[in-house]
Amino acid sequence: MEHLFDKEWTITPAGGATGEAYFAQREEQKLFLKRNSSPFLAVLSAEGIVPKLIWTKRLENGDVITAQSWMSGRELSARDMNDISVAKLLHKIHSTKPLLTMLERLGVKPFQPEEMLIQVETGLDTDLTRRLVVEQSIQFLQENIGDIYTANYVVCHGDLNHNNWLLSDDGDLYLIDWDSSMIGDPAIDLGLILYWYIPREDWGMWLSQYGVELSNSLQIRMKWYVICQTLLSVQWHYSKDRVAEMNQLLMRLEGFITL
């Protein structure tokens, strides 16, 4: 990464699971660099969903480096996720046609629930499938897959952890880290936020700020997808021997099943 800049720049790792993000600084100028970020970052930048894209460079080995404005601000807390600005930005993302058009041009097809169910059925370790809550969860997914369909496909972020929301010092809200993006049911994103961050009694209000009603169809789809995603996260933590995090997810899964 250093060879892209002259000696006046300081390059430091930005952390993260992939190790592909960096900060670059020269005096007061700061950039956020990432290797092989989402291919539609330019559209996200143009729509004001992510910090401004400054430049893109392709390396000889085929890797693509992007540089964005470094925003002074903070990540959202779990409590912040109930703010109306989160609902409004997510609605904008789900309804912005240039985002959907760009992914379609890249050959991305709508993600179907059968694909996620296959990931669960074939990807979980045998030790996990023996657990009662996992068995109940898989049974729920199999019994209800016939109800998990929509004609409304949108661009979904796919990883709406509160740490991926950036509030700048100027009050602008951004959603970053689009590596898990897909075309899919908006319930994929909505379920992640509502189940993980919003009290059940506030779901109707939050969704009205987003722009939809809490219908029976939306409820079952959100529950279905969030259980799928949680099971896949359980498997990931299990594979990394992160027992504490895995057990916390299993406890949350018990609550999701009964809700």
TrEMBL record:
<dbReference type="InterPro" id="IPR052077">
    <property type="entry name" value="CcrZ_PhaseVar_Mediator"/>
</dbReference>
<protein>
    <submittedName>
        <fullName>Phosphotransferase</fullName>
    </submittedName>
</protein>
<dbReference type="InterPro" id="IPR002575">
    <property type="entry name" value="Aminoglycoside_PTrfase"/>
</dbReference>
<dbReference type="GO" id="GO:0016740">
    <property type="term" value="F:transferase activity"/>
</dbReference>
<dbReference type="Pfam" id="PF01636">
    <property type="entry name" value="APH"/>
</dbReference>
<feature type="domain" description="Aminoglycoside phosphotransferase">
    <location>
        <begin position="14"/>
        <end position="212"/>
    </location>
</feature>
<keyword id="KW-0808">Transferase</keyword>
<dbReference type="InterPro" id="IPR011009">
    <property type="entry name" value="Kinase-like_dom_sf"/>
</dbReference>
